[in-house]
Amino acid sequence: MNRIDLRHAPLALLLPFLIACAHTPPAQQSADAGANAAYVMDPHSHARPTEAVIKHLDLDITVHMDSQRIEGTASYLLQRSGATHIILDTDGLIIHEVEGNGGPLPFEMGPASLIGRPLRIALAPGTERIRVRYATGPGAKALKWLTPEQTTGGAHPFLFTQSQAILARTWIPVQDSPGIRFTYKARVQVPTPLMAVMSATNPQERAPDGVYEFTMDQPIPAYLVALAVGDLAFRPLGERCGVYAEPAVVEQAAWEFADTERMLVAAESLYGPYRWGRYDVLVLPPSFPFGGMENPMLTFATPTIIAGDRSLNALIAHELAHSWSGNLVTNATWNDFWLNEGFTVYFENRISEALYGPAYAGMLAQLGRQDLDNTIAGLERSGRNADTHLRLDLTGRDPDDGMTDIAYEKGATFLRMLEMKVGRARFDAFLRDYFDRFAFTSMTTDKFLAHLKENLLDPLQVEVDLDAWVDGPGLPPDAPTPESPLFAQVEAELERWQKGTPPAQLATSSWSTFEWLHFIRHLPRPLNKTQMAALDKSFGFTGTGNMEVLAAWLEQCIRNDYAPAYPRLEEFLTKVGRRKFLTPLYTELASTEAGRERALAIYQQARANYHAVARQTIDDVLAIKDGKPPVDF
Predict the structure, then answer these.
(1) Of the residues 108, 319, 515, 588, which is catalytic?
(2) Exactly one of 76, 223, 408, 586 is catalytic; which is it?
(3) What gap in Å lies between CA 362 and CA 31, rounded to an integer?
(4) pTM (two decimals)
(5) At 91, is the pLDDT very low, low, confident or very high (cuts 50, 70, 90)?
(6) Which of 82, 225, 234, 424 shows the smallest number of beta carbons within 10 Å?
(7) Can 319 be counted among the known catalytic residues?
């Protein structure tokens, strides 16, 4: 059945739905309304969950790797509060038909906007389930299709999704708000011999017919529904943990992430049982835009954390921590994003401390503080002081604008401050109770602050200026400053070098990735070509396989016009799509006219390899509109 525009629907078609609304029993309306009353209206979703909300999804789709399209059906179990319609979010989807109670349902597509197009579905009397037949359109932003040449193996294409923040609606018609949770099952048909994995129960062997079935029994928001399809292999990391990756990468990844099971045990000892069954990691091709994405049961991770020495495993600790902070207790809207990320950075640091010691955790926290100070300074320079608040107002803006170090590092600093004021034992007990009490629910900033005062601050008579922390700019005066004696040693060596000690004679043999990052970040400005060459010869920065160290060094190379590193810079920007690395490198290039020309030349070749969220950011950095710069590419 083709879609029906309700604005022009005949009365005979609409009459049954009007009658149903008029005759819904008042008692049933009251009960349903009470069940839906806890939902928060989300400015980044068309959904009206207080009227009608999805509770379970059955997804049945076919993935067409050749035509780069997904098609199939999304069927929903609904909870209604006397509503005569339900609204789903879409963006670029092609809706073929909608059914309910075995028959067609009228529907209409609203106008397009920043948050996509609403799909408004009229509900017949007694309709508790609806089925939407659809297909993805060209350029679906959540989907990254890779050619065989863009993978490590080079023989098969690859697909991965990235739905956070509001991109799930580009590949599933859904109520795409973090405050709306549902369970799901999925049947996914993919070309053989490829494997499909999701944020759910997963196979460990390939299906000979290319059909895979998945179950997520715990309610999750739409942004955590994830899918990847490719040439994948699996290796166990312990009783509950394992890693998926391309066959050429999987053994290296398994060695790199060998501590994952230990991290899981450490996390449970801090804040309670892991409630998701398994915790696996999927290593994606380098174009993945983030370090990791905390998709339940299956973290999606960048290969740039495979350093060969297990030095970048803090990212795994971060994504694992999201199994409590974010996935278990979730920000109700993207204005409350700090409730996901601030808690997770704090938790990540505690896991790292438990496994690797206070000195390691101190370095991690100090690097985070450096990132936070830079972010605050940058936002202040650009007149975005309000974006340095923990609680944001992103109405009318892309919620991706709020995904900065403010949510991550200022949020974590706030929690460290609370820990210092009440003591670690009391704060740990508070957090453990918080995760238990609000498990599988959504949290607003106001609700958290009320809970904090009632259950921690007031009983202990502790004074905290919550307004300054949550709704004020920058960092309040009582913000703790992390310290690390290991960084003091780095600074001593840096001073020796500045006074004339050759780089090769510096005491660096025991340095980890974190010490090298601190060293590179604190190199004086400017450096001449002789100094850059001496550092590079002694420490092999340009040729390093550690992507964190390389990215920091390449930023220095651009700043100091160190030409010998430019071929590696071009290779890095062409292959790696992690936005954390791309943004400062392109920003530094764009600071000069010659650098901007170099950036545009590289971006012309690299842009197609980047995911949509990375492309959007770099388009902004280079002042590109609709994929085109002010001058010809």
Answers:
(1) 319
(2) 408
(3) 51
(4) 0.92
(5) very high
(6) 424
(7) yes
